[in-house]
Amino acid sequence: MPSSPLRPIWWDGDAVMILDQRLLPHKHKVLRCTTVDDVIRAIKTMAIRGAPAVGIAGAMAAALGARTIMAADVRTFVRKFSRVCERIRSARPTGNNLSWAVDAMFAVVVENPGVDVPRLQQLIREKSQAILEEDVRTNEAIGRWGMEVVPRGARILTYCNAGALATGDYGTALGVIRAAFAADPSLHVTCCETRPFLQGSRLTAYELMAEKIPCTLITDNAAGSLMQQKKIDLVIVGADRIAANGDTANKIGTYALAVLAQANGVPFYVAAPRSTIDPLLPNGSQIPIEERDAKEVTHFYGRLVAPRGMAAVNPAFDVTPHRYITGIITEVGIIRKPFTRGIRRALEAPPPTSNPV
Ligand SMILES: CSC[C@H]1O[C@H](OP(=O)(O)O)[C@H](O)[C@@H]1O
């Protein structure tokens, strides 16, 4: 069992256990995954979601796949494992963490020449657990750095779910909120429902209420008006892929929030681990945006709301140009403009070892 009721994924012997987030907050069902396809299906259907959590799921799927490869020799094993990794990589296109995790899993093979197949399978399984544990430490460091930008009594707005359920535990944007709340219980969080999958009203609200963090749910459309009325002190969101210049892909609707924040003089922060950064992308124009089923728009919990036959488009993410971002909170510090130089330095920094503040 996981150490926290909010952990979205964990090993249970030879099975990967995934908390089915499609049913939260009112039903708590765990999917028992024993094959690569079980995990890929959980990712594609958003039973597990959130860029870092999807990366961890990809790592564990790779370990499940490695275990089932029957190969007498290492060369055959490597060839088959490479194919498994490529299948996992394509499960969801926008988040950088999935490909980052798959690359890290394949690197185990590259970094262990001369090791036999059973030992490689064990090392791959251990790496997947290490990625989970490193993610939690990373989020705690993001939380500690992020406290620097949260004034006492802050009224914070957040979007979608960048919490324990979107990561290995603790969260990125919600990691900052958890760390700030531990030091200052007077803060307040406004969370946007985040149509159409409702990560805000179902998941972020669930996390915040579980920990008695003062919070209020609003429709996505209300965010701008609250900022206009000076009722929000700062915005903190997660990220799915950050380009080398700081352009950031996140849940659809984030771009609008960032423009509204700048228009109203509200600081706008992105909280993300370095595994979300894609240094090979010079800017956000080439970030692949996942198109999801139009039924998520025309239906509400499976019930047709729009007229039958109504056309709908459902991009799951958008890209916020770096000019609208105040800072990027990572596990090695807060990156501010000029982002290209700051991101390069952050990627060169050693991993966090202790409390940076
Ligand atoms: C900790 S980053 C989580 C990130 O992922 C969410 O998207 P989805 O729920 O579709 O996986 C959203 O963009 C969050 O900010």
Automatic annotation (TrEMBL):
Annotated site residues (Transition state stabilizer) in this chain = C160
Positions that bind substrate = R49, G50, A51, R92, Q199, N250, K251
Gene Ontology molecular function, alphabetical: S-methyl-5-thioribose-1-phosphate isomerase activity
Q: Which reaction does it catalyse?
A: 5-(methylsulfanyl)-alpha-D-ribose 1-phosphate = 5-(methylsulfanyl)-D-ribulose 1-phosphate
Q: Name the active site residues.
A: D240
Q: What is its EC number?
A: 5.3.1.23
Which keywords belong to this entry?
Answer: Amino-acid biosynthesis, Isomerase, Methionine biosynthesis
Which pathway?
Answer: Amino-acid biosynthesis; L-methionine biosynthesis via salvage pathway; L-methionine from S-methyl-5-thio-alpha-D-ribose 1-phosphate: step 1/6
Query: Which parts form a coiled-coil structure per UniProt?
Result: none
GO biological-process terms attached to the record: L-methionine salvage from methylthioadenosine
InterPro entries per UniProt: IF-2B-related, IF-M1Pi, IF_2B-like_C, Initiation_fac_2B_a/b/d, M1Pi_N, NagB/RpiA_transferase-like
Role noted for this protein: Catalyzes the interconversion of methylthioribose-1-phosphate (MTR-1-P) into methylthioribulose-1-phosphate (MTRu-1-P).
- Family to which the UniProt record says this protein belongs: Belongs to the EIF-2B alpha/beta/delta subunits family. MtnA subfamily.
Name the record gives this protein: Methylthioribose-1-phosphate isomerase
Gene this protein is translated from: mtnA
